[in-house]
Amino acid sequence: MTDTNTTARYRRILVKLSGEALLGSEDYGIDPKILKRIAGEIRDLTQMGVQVAVVLGGGNIFRGAGLARAGMDRVTGDHMGMLATVINALAMQDALESLGVYARVMSALRINEVCEDYIRRRAVRHLEKGRVVIFGAGTGNPFFTTDTAASLRAIEINAEILLKATKVNGIYDSDPLLNPDAKRYTHLTFDKVLNDRLNVMEVFNLFNAGDLLRIVQGEDVGTVVSAGP
Ligand code: UDP
Q: If you measure from the C-alpha of residue 18 to the centroid of ligand 1, how many angstroms do you get, rounded to a whole number?
C-alpha cells in the first residue's frame, strides 16, 4: 500500500454500471464521451490506491426479457444479453487502457479468444496488482441480472462496498423525477441481510461527474444501504 490511499475510505470496491449508463446521448450502444469520463473516474480511484472491480450491464444493447417479449426463446435472449455485457466490458477495458490503466475483462462465459475466464483467485490477484477487473457475462446463467452478478462478485472478491450507479443520486421516499419534494435517505438498513459478508451498498448518480470519487472519499453522496446503523 502506498500513501496515496490515505484519503480513500475503501481499499477494494465493486462498481456496478448499467448498460444504460454507457448510452449517454445515444439511443443505442455506447457513447464514447461517457465511456471516457467514467474510465477517467475509475483511473482517479486507482491512483488513490483503491482496488476497483466493475460489473457492466448490457441493457444498452440487449436484454433477454425484452427479446423474449418480441418472441425469442428466453434462454437465447439471455445469452445475447450476457454477450452484450462482454461487448460493454471490452469497450471499458479499451477506454481504461487508453488512459494508461491496466485492465482485464473476465467473463463468466468462456470466450477465450476475446478475454479471460472468470477465476476468483486470478481476479483477486489482478486487483492486488492494481489492475481494474471488469466482470463480463453476468453470472453466466440465464434468468439472472447483472445486479445479482454484481452482488455475487462483490462478495466473492471481498469488496468492502458495492457502488450501484443509477440515474438518481440515491434512494428516495418517492420518485424524485415525479415529486419535487421527494426526500433522499442518506442511510437505510436491510430488513433482512441476505449475506453477512457483503453488508453495505451505496446508490449514487453516475451522471454527476466526480460523485464516484466523493463517495470513496467518504462524502455524503447517494444512499448507503447497510446491515446496521
Ligand atoms: N443476463 C443473464 N444472466 C446474468 C446477467 C445478465 O442472462 O447473470 C442477461 C439478461 O438477459 C439481462 C442482460 O444479460 O437482461 C443484460 O443485463 P442487465 O439487464 O442486468 O443489464 P443492465 O440493466 O444493468 O444494463
A: 9
